[in-house]
Protein backbone atom coordinates (compact mmCIF):
# COMPACT_ATOMS: atom_id res chain seq x y z
CA UNK A 1 0.00 0.00 0.00
CA UNK A 2 2.89 2.32 0.71
CA UNK A 3 4.09 1.88 -2.86
CA UNK A 4 0.88 3.38 -4.24
CA UNK A 5 1.32 6.43 -2.04
CA UNK A 6 4.82 7.00 -3.37
CA UNK A 7 3.54 6.79 -6.93
CA UNK A 8 0.90 9.50 -6.37
CA UNK A 9 3.37 12.41 -6.70
CA UNK A 10 5.11 10.73 -9.62
CA UNK A 11 1.83 10.19 -11.48
CA UNK A 12 0.99 13.90 -11.16
CA UNK A 13 4.28 14.96 -12.73
CA UNK A 14 3.84 12.60 -15.69
CA UNK A 15 0.76 14.33 -17.18
CA UNK A 16 2.23 17.75 -16.43
CA UNK A 17 5.43 16.98 -18.34
CA UNK A 18 3.49 15.64 -21.33
CA UNK A 19 1.67 18.96 -21.66
CA UNK A 20 4.21 21.22 -23.40
CA UNK A 21 3.62 24.96 -23.18
CA UNK A 22 2.40 26.59 -26.43
CA UNK A 23 5.43 28.81 -27.02
CA UNK A 24 6.10 28.09 -30.71
From TrEMBL:
Residues 1-24 are annotated as: Disordered. Residues 1-11 have a biased composition (Polar residues). It comes from the Bacteria. This is Uncharacterized protein. It comes from Blastopirellula marina DSM 3645.
Amino acid sequence: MQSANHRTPNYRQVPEYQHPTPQG
